[in-house]
Write a structure and sequence with these properties.
By secondary structure, this protein is mainly α. It has one domain (8-114). The protein has helices at 8-35, 45-69, 77-114. The longest helix has 38 residues, at 77-114.
């Protein structure tokens, strides 16, 4: 008979970091395929920033797994610092993409006016 010592939420909390790391492996494969594109017309800077944010997330999840395993002990503020870094990178990512799109729109409008 299966004992129900842990509630479902706690069980999910224990295995979630492992599932997250598994899904991140899929994302890393997709990033490697994206970065191997030889088309120079692709604006990759925002994607490189997103890749860096994913790398920070991987470090955060690895720390979580190590903490749950009892391998290391770190203050809880470290997770907040990682989240802050990830959010800051996302905001910068969006601003860079917005600037790039506005520049392309201005260039298209100028080409139409000059034609």
């Amino acid at each position: 008979m299966i004992s129900n010592n842990l509630p479902f939420g706690e069980c999910l909390g224990l295995v979630a970091p492992y599932y997250n790391l598994t899904l991140v492996l899929v994302v890393l494969v997709l990033f490697l395929k994206l970065f191997s594109i030889h088309n120079k017309k692709v604006f990759l800077l925002p994607w490189k920033l997103l890749f860096f944010a994913v790398a920070v997330y991987i470090v955060e999840e690895l720390l979580t797994v190590f903490i749950f395993a009892g391998i290391i002990v770190v203050p809880r503020i470290i997770n907040a610092v990682f989240e802050f870094i990830i959010i800051t990178i996302f905001i910068y990512f969006l601003l860079i993409q917005r600037e790039y799109l506005e520049k392309n729109n201005r260039d298209k409008i100028n080409k139409r006016k000059n034609a």
